[in-house]
Amino acid sequence: MANSNLAAGPSGAKPKPFITPQRAVVYTVLIVCAIFFLFPLYIMIITSLKNIQEIQSGNIFIPTLHPTLDAWEKAWNSACTGLYCEGIKVGFWNSIKITVPSTIVSIIVASLTGYSMANWPFKFSEVFFTILLLSSFIPYVVMIYPLVIITRELGIYSTLPAVVLVHTIFGLPLLTLLFRNYFASLPQELFKAARVDGAGYWQIFFQVFAPMSVPIFTVAVILQVTGIWNDFLFGVIYAGPTNYPMTVQLNNIVNSAQGGKAYNVDMAATILTGLVPLAIYFFSGKYFVRGIAAGAVKG
Amino acid sequence: MDRPNPLFRNLNSKLASLPMMLIVLGVFVGGTLWTVLFSFTNIKILPLFTPKQWIDGFVGFANYKRLFNSDRWMSCPAITKIGQEGWQLKCTGAMPNMITYAILAIIISISLGFLLAVMMDQKIRLEGMFRTIYLYPFALSFIVTGHVWAWIMSPEYGLQHAIRELGWTSFSFGWIADRQMVMYAIVIAGIWQGTGFVMALMLAGLRGIDEDIWKAARVDGIPAWRTYIQIVLPMMKPVMVTTFVLVASGAVRIYDLVVALTDGGPGISSDVPSRYIYQNFSANLGQSLSASTVMLVSMALVLIPWMRMEFGKKSQA
Question: For chain B, which domains are there?
Fold first, then answer.
């Protein structure tokens, strides 16, 4: 009876308590794979708690007996990026400066576009939407040069607005799809009733649709914050050296060879860089899965 | 009754979609056309979009010829004979590296992802915990992924050192420093980051299959593993195609992971097209743009299965 559960989640009777050979195989595979996936996290954490002598003399698997947060402190406050030695905190604040406006602007633009596509189609709107979806497959590197020209002509190259614009552009295909599908799935009677009552484009969006769209906005925020936080390429090209995000700073810290390689500091900086998306992932659970599956499940 | 000007119908909707329309036309269509068109010119510095620059600089396929003659992009010098059986073609360069990565990443992450999804579908305990464990790397950036694996695979202090210390002194795992093996090291890191996502998609696909199929298979006495392979797998074709397109398109544009893990090294033995293009922007713009066009074509090839499925659906309906 092992395979009868095909509902959206676990349901029905609890699993039988005794272990059959079949189930032993299932759990062995699951546990072996879990070890593979957890291994780098374990290594990151124990390495960041060691001091540099223990790293050079010790074993990568074995945790230290004298854990210390020195490497974390150094990674945050004083690790060198090649230009200066102010730690990865500079990158952290830059990433916040980039992520907050980029998330807000891209979601405003995409939610309105998705709403227009779903509820107020106009001539050629389907054509635009199809090109937009295909555009999500254009390799970013192909668009770099045209966008350098565009941002240069707009006079914003190498500034914060440039990187916000680029994130808005590349977030648009997926987010529009997400919002269009969501708004299209809402009952059309609702839209028609609001129309009959005399509500227009903006009124229906703000007073009828937006209040019942909190889940999809949450998914969009999660998707954008993780995506933008994890970006490297756009940050390094468009933001300018004073606004380098955390991923770029991390890469510079690891690659700067001042005074030999400090793997404990590198690993502390690596965890710190991964901390924001990881926290979002662990706290948002289902929303995260819904977000990443949005591009795959087409309506 | 006066007919209103059709341009002003749904005016608010058009106004709100204006940024999207500008981005589609100006950036996605415009940028792609610009890249393709100027890949046939010998421009050196940041050109604009003027036809005159294009006509003046037109050089035909010269950039493409130079690109495919460049060892850094692609070089297949040795067709070596292996025994009686046949010949082996050994290619090096950015393009073959990307293809190697793509093929391995697709095969391994899709088979491992499917296997994990099937195991997760067995009414197991702690399903949520396992799902969280498999999927968390997907929340991390490629830069983080690359640096963690660079440390683990570091020949000096990493896995190799640790296992040799345990007594197995001949153990060797210096893949990131080995020209022949470095792409496989990148595959390991890529698999670690992306397989959870494939598993999540496959699991959603498995859960979407009609329960009656399972009942019918059980009534007929078909064992579960055969039901999975012969009945469920073919029914999951749409999920498989979607997963293939997502994994393959990610592999074609691979960049950050290589930058963090090996930075193209040792030497340039793990260079990939995105990195090649980026590195040649200033010195060799024409070649960079022709390489971009080759990438666009590669991406179009990846999209074919998905297009066939989408358009096939429409023609049937």
Answer: 92-316 (1.10.3720.10)
